[in-house]
Amino acid sequence: MFMEILNNHVTIRKFKNTPVEPNLLDSILYSGTRASTTGNMQVYSIIVITDEKKRKELAPAHFNQPVAQNAPVLLTFAADFNRFSKWCTLNNAKPGYSNFISFFTAAIDALLVAQNVCVAAENKGLGICYLGTTTYNAREIIKTLEMPKLTFPVTTVALGYPDENPELTDRLPLKGVVHNEKYEDYAESQIEDLYAFKESLESSRQFVKENEKKTLAQVFTDVRYKEKDNLFFSDKMMEVLKEQGFLQNS
Predict the structure, then answer these.
(1) Prediction pTM value
(2) 159 has which bridge partners?
(3) 3-state SS, one letter per residue, for the chain
(4) What's the rounded Cα separation, in Å, for the pair 113 and 103?
(5) pLDDT single digits (tens) 209-240
């Protein structure tokens, strides 16, 4: 049963206008907190948004995606060394977490918790959608959620009861992502073989046509994840990390 939940995961972008019961949500969040965490420090926080007005405040930071506005629950998972550092200071211990490795550690913690929450939610019949816009507009989210120094939003999950039943999304075969004993680099023929199925899908062909490109790869490099955008958001993210105190000692 549990393996089936993992194997049948789909992203849900349309939710019923049905609130998630507080007790159910708390149970799901508790399961999230049972995730692995570095040194048992739990250097993450989860900011729960159920208020419609607050969701609308956050919407621009998520590029006004309908799923960010219409999901009954938005969960922002944050890397958080603020709480742990304050605990250290109160106990005559000098925290040394104003650096990139500490941010990366806390980001890993936050993502592990987020995935636990998602699996727990799906186990209870709920649907989820990760919002990749979170790190793009971290500064705006930090301001809206009044997040202090040494915190940083890593990902957001929209959660609720599904109002759609999408098909499974294609995935690369195991031979495309699993390496035994050492990393085996890919020959051109292997690359062509690994991506052949994805490229053959009618949805992929339509994707290429709609974007007026010649190949599916060009859709990713020229439209969806352009180098110009990647560099812009990378610079912006580094600025916010400095503002939040994660690069002071780096």
Answers:
(1) 0.95
(2) 73, 128
(3) CHHHHHHCCCCCCCECCCCCCHHHHHHHHHHHHCCCCHHHCCCEEEEEECCHHHHHHHHHHHCCCHHHHHCCEEEEEEEECHHHHHHHHHCCCCCCCCCHHHHHHHHHHHHHHHHHHHHHHHHCCCEEEEECCCCCCHHHHHHHCCCCCCEEEEEEEEEECECCCCCCCCCCCHHHHCCCCCCCCCCHHHHHHHHHHHHHCHHHHHHHHHCCCCCHHHHHHHHHCCHHHHHHHHHHHHHHHHHCCCCCCC
(4) 15
(5) 999 999 999 999 999 999 999 999 999 999 99
Check if the beta carbon of residue 65 is closer than 8 Å to that of residue 134. Answer: no
Residue type, position 48, single letter: V
Residue 155: strand pairing partners: 77
Structure tokens at 147: 């997040």
The token pair at 76 is 């922002």
